[in-house]
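Quick one: structure for this chain?
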Amino acid sequence: MTTSLTEEIAVTAARLVVEEGMEYGPAKRRAARALGRQSARASELPGNDVIEDEVRNYLAIFCADTQPVELAALRAVAMAWMERLAAFRPHLTGAVWRGTATRLNNVHLELFCDDSKAAELALVDRSVDYDVGSRPGPRGEPIDVLSVAHTSAELGERITVHLSVLDHDDLRGALKPDAGGRSQSGDLVALRKLVASA
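Got it. Here's what it folds into:
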């Protein structure tokens, strides 16, 4: 059975995601270049759902003894920050929520605020050092991303926690499932259930 270029890109990208902690988009493009396709067409690139399936396969084969422990430690970091920032309706998203994270991944939380500066002021009030960046928001406009460091005793290293500051009205969109019916994010109650069932 021959393997299509799209399948080869997915397998190679999954390895990059797990071994180097890359995000899906950059991993797909680097995988395409590694396979000799410097300018692969969008139709040749696998969807994120395909990459995620390959990541799960890779983890099951090569990381079954370490990844569950690392994921639990990252979810503990997420929980600590979600409790600390409960006033901003935090939702966990990304690989830590989806269960595919390793120690190389960052924790991604989305905060839903009536006032976009409120989360920043909360960090200042608690004397938390943070960096400010941005990323495209749900409507295409840039949103603030506050990045903080958290030392994980379980992992023995510092984990970066990215806090994306969204408008309160964006909360409805965050709860929509993906094409496979899986939730894109979860609040603290949902995370506690996930941890309890692991």
